[in-house]
């Protein structure tokens, strides 16, 4: 069911669509469970993609995949430009990551999620030609306070003042990559602590923006698809997000320029990553994490936990579901 404006104008994604999309992330997460800890991230991703694609076909919306994860490593994927949904209902941009954290899933580690983000058609930045983005994410206290163009130490001090807490209580999430050695050193030199993530860029950003979360900021270079997905969630949390596209070589820089993307350190603000506030973000836990619990099976039941964040209403809802195991055999 979708809402229609009084003048019968364009249809837009609404709260009912949000609840329908949870079924797709639940399906992807559940189908990935047999591969948790088995060391085969492509098999896990493939199972999640197939399940998500099948459930998309039952949802009444006219979706176009703008950000389809998987291109970085030739993994199975819902590809960019693919049409999803029944074709009836609101026209939407869709960003998907059937498993954000395939390596986490394969290793049996925490914070793997199945994720979908949706906005009005034409609202999402298509950054698919550049795979990486330098991001800075905080909660509401950072809005109008921090800026990705400033040194990380200065941003830490500014955020600490805005939060009314000592610098040595600030915790910054960073992907544990060689490219971040200087960033990590600078964070620690400023007096703050780090939470190093092996994967799970989306969860890191959302946890930094949540009220009373264990981290205060998420910084560093991760996937550009994850940046767009995270921006959809941040709209609901009232937080801060900025991004700069990070090209790996001249060829990728040329592809980005040909696609009309702004490079050379240009800072994309939240409303440039995703226009407006009519955003929906849904995620189901594959493995346990700070944001949601992972899927677990107990006898005749499978349990899943999901979150739904809606930009227009500024809400975060949790959905805990019980599924009959017999329906998934």
From TrEMBL:
<feature type="binding site">
    <location>
        <position position="100"/>
    </location>
    <ligand>
        <name>Mn(2+) 2</name>
    </ligand>
</feature>
<feature type="binding site">
    <location>
        <position position="45"/>
    </location>
    <ligand>
        <name>Mn(2+) 1</name>
    </ligand>
</feature>
<feature type="binding site">
    <location>
        <position position="223"/>
    </location>
    <ligand>
        <name>substrate</name>
    </ligand>
</feature>
<feature type="binding site">
    <location>
        <position position="226"/>
    </location>
    <ligand>
        <name>Mn(2+) 2</name>
    </ligand>
</feature>
<dbReference type="GO" id="GO:0005829">
    <property type="term" value="C:cytosol"/>
</dbReference>
<feature type="binding site">
    <location>
        <begin position="177"/>
        <end position="179"/>
    </location>
    <ligand>
        <name>substrate</name>
    </ligand>
</feature>
<dbReference type="GO" id="GO:0046872">
    <property type="term" value="F:metal ion binding"/>
</dbReference>
<dbReference type="InterPro" id="IPR004464">
    <property type="entry name" value="FBPase_class-2/SBPase"/>
</dbReference>
<feature type="binding site">
    <location>
        <begin position="100"/>
        <end position="102"/>
    </location>
    <ligand>
        <name>substrate</name>
    </ligand>
</feature>
<comment type="pathway">
    <text>Carbohydrate biosynthesis; gluconeogenesis.</text>
</comment>
<feature type="binding site">
    <location>
        <position position="69"/>
    </location>
    <ligand>
        <name>Mn(2+) 1</name>
    </ligand>
</feature>
<keyword id="KW-0464">Manganese</keyword>
<feature type="binding site">
    <location>
        <position position="132"/>
    </location>
    <ligand>
        <name>substrate</name>
    </ligand>
</feature>
<dbReference type="GO" id="GO:0006071">
    <property type="term" value="P:glycerol metabolic process"/>
</dbReference>
<keyword id="KW-0378">Hydrolase</keyword>
<feature type="binding site">
    <location>
        <position position="97"/>
    </location>
    <ligand>
        <name>Mn(2+) 2</name>
    </ligand>
</feature>
<keyword id="KW-0479">Metal-binding</keyword>
<feature type="binding site">
    <location>
        <begin position="199"/>
        <end position="201"/>
    </location>
    <ligand>
        <name>substrate</name>
    </ligand>
</feature>
<keyword id="KW-0119">Carbohydrate metabolism</keyword>
<comment type="similarity">
    <text>Belongs to the FBPase class 2 family.</text>
</comment>
<protein>
    <recommendedName>
        <fullName>Fructose-1,6-bisphosphatase</fullName>
    </recommendedName>
</protein>
<dbReference type="Pfam" id="PF03320">
    <property type="entry name" value="FBPase_glpX"/>
</dbReference>
<dbReference type="GO" id="GO:0042132">
    <property type="term" value="F:fructose 1,6-bisphosphate 1-phosphatase activity"/>
</dbReference>
<dbReference type="GO" id="GO:0006094">
    <property type="term" value="P:gluconeogenesis"/>
</dbReference>
<dbReference type="GO" id="GO:0030388">
    <property type="term" value="P:fructose 1,6-bisphosphate metabolic process"/>
</dbReference>
